[in-house]
Amino acid sequence: MAPLAALLPVLLALGAAASPTLLITPSAPTPSLAPCLAAAYHGKYGAEHVFLASDACVAESAGLLSAGSLVPTLEDEVVVWVGRAGVEGAAPFSAEGVFAQIQSAGRKFLPALLAAEDGTQKVFSAPASSASLSLLHASDSALFLSVPRAALPVLDTLLPPHYVPVGVAPSPVALGWDVPAHYAEHLANVTRHLRFRPDIATVVNTIDADAIRRDVRWLTGEAPSGIVSRHSFTEGARVAAKWIKEKVEATGADCEYFPYLEGFSPDVLCTYPSDSSERVILSGHYDSRGSFGSTRAPGADDDGSGTSHVLAVAAGIAAHNITFDKKVTLAFFSGEEQGLWGSHYWAKHLASENATVVLQIQADMLAYRVPGEPLQLGLPATIELPEAGWLVANVSALYAPELVVGRTEACCSDHQSFISYGFPATQVFERNGWIADPMYHNSGDLADREGYDFDQIASIAKVTFATVLEVAGFKTK
Ligand SMILES: *[C@@H]1O[C@H](CO)[C@@H](O)[C@H](O)[C@H]1NC(C)=O
Ligand SMILES: *[C@@H]1O[C@H](CO)[C@@H](O)[C@H](O)[C@H]1NC(C)=O
Ligand SMILES: *[C@@H]1O[C@H](CO)[C@@H](O)[C@H](O)[C@H]1NC(C)=O
Ligand SMILES: *[C@@H]1O[C@H](CO)[C@@H](O)[C@H](O)[C@H]1NC(C)=O
Ligand SMILES: [Zn+2]
């Protein structure tokens, strides 16, 4: 919180601390950065760049950084960025106000949440005393919090509904500066050569809104699945993960669970066999978030819609006996609501394998349409590789002309994890402009309500499916 120059002597006087120092700066890193600092880069969050460096490295680099804040970090705690989700008509940002709300939520709701049993579901198991979050830094529009590991499972339940967390990468982001140019060039070339293909239209036109309806209702518990919540730490999330895995396996994919942090229900990763080393990834997050203080989290729109849209693509792959040239993975993430953790750890794993991901598309909230507005497809206004968004927009015009394509302020979903590790990614969303769903992060996020539109999910599924077919290359048997 203090300016760099003022804090530096204090930190140096404290001597070599075991935990690194958090350096938050609006200045983008440049190639002239000290090597120790370049190796300590943990990515961009909102408008700010984050480093976690030793005090010696910070001292060595001070002259290179004109602006920024230095804050000591705490042992056994993770750093989480908390920012505005992009909700229509949300109150202006006040760091003190938001932090006070978080603290009072901890006092008010946590004891009840920790004790809650919802049917057979033990909802949380973190000790109540762990809910001691501290404020490390406040910027113009976001907070950086220090979160004890044991409090991660309940982080989403402490945040006001219009705020979302993004975990700061626990280890340095090796690829550093940006998505490499060759990825952008490849996608721009695909867009340049794009033309309407009747074979692709035939395949994507069989996307079935009724099948999507059945899947969403199963995930929310509106159909008798027994699921009350898909919060990452619930039994409901595990039931959903098993069901998704079996369903996609039946379409010819090899599916695996990808565990990443203790207690979180695992990601489900399903890959269609291919000899290619290049990957195309289509994803949604199957975990959900309920109202402030409630254990019920049906998540029909967020993100039962994106999850069921990926399931519809899987069904289409099987129905047309499609084999892909490149490796296509359908991914179902968890831990999204606590800070994009499931996607984070898998993107990190892919980066550690030097994987080539030619495109990743995240589908998060596809269903809600303000009554009277047209069918829409919103692409991210900020966090994406622009060439990825342009490709999706151009594909939409060819295969789902009923969608009005634009840009959305909705912030923060799993594609950000892929961007952080230097992979080309974008997101598809239900609306242009702000989030308007009145049941956003609410325990009333059910499918059976005004504005929840299965046809819009199906239209967006045509677009993502056609994009995957174009980029991955395919044959029908
Ligand atoms: C661009 O795309 C076309 C059509 O798919 C392909 O034939 C060509 O090799 C690509 N060019 C580059 C530079 O990738
Ligand atoms: C797909 O393959 C199965 C068996 O291999 C066959 O029965 C079915 O007719 C094929 N479907 C299409 C659309 O070609
Ligand atoms: C990935 O690339 C780096 C740098 O070229 C190399 O050191 C490392 O061994 C590679 N890792 C794998 C799993 O291939
Ligand atoms: C289609 O792609 C081009 C870049 O090739 C881009 O300029 C244009 O905005 C895209 N179309 C839409 C509707 O976004
Ligand atoms: Zn979501």
Automatic annotation (TrEMBL):
The source's domain of life comes to: Eukaryota
Does the keyword field hold Protease?
A: yes
- Which Pfam families does UniProt cross-reference here? Peptidase_M28
Q: Does the keyword Metal-binding apply?
A: yes
Which cofactors go with this protein?
Answer: Zn(2+)
Q: Which residues form the signal peptide?
A: 1-18
What Enzyme Commission number(s) apply to this enzyme? 3.4.-.-
What biological process terms from GO does the record include? proteolysis
- What is the uppermost EC class here? hydrolase
Residues forming the Peptidase M28 domain are 268-453
What is a GO molecular function of this protein? Answer: aminopeptidase activity
* TM regions (residue ranges): none
Family the UniProt entry places it in = Belongs to the peptidase M28 family. M28B subfamily.
- The protein's name in its UniProt record: Peptide hydrolase
Q: What lineage does the source organism belong to?
A: Eukaryota, Fungi, Dikarya, Basidiomycota, Agaricomycotina
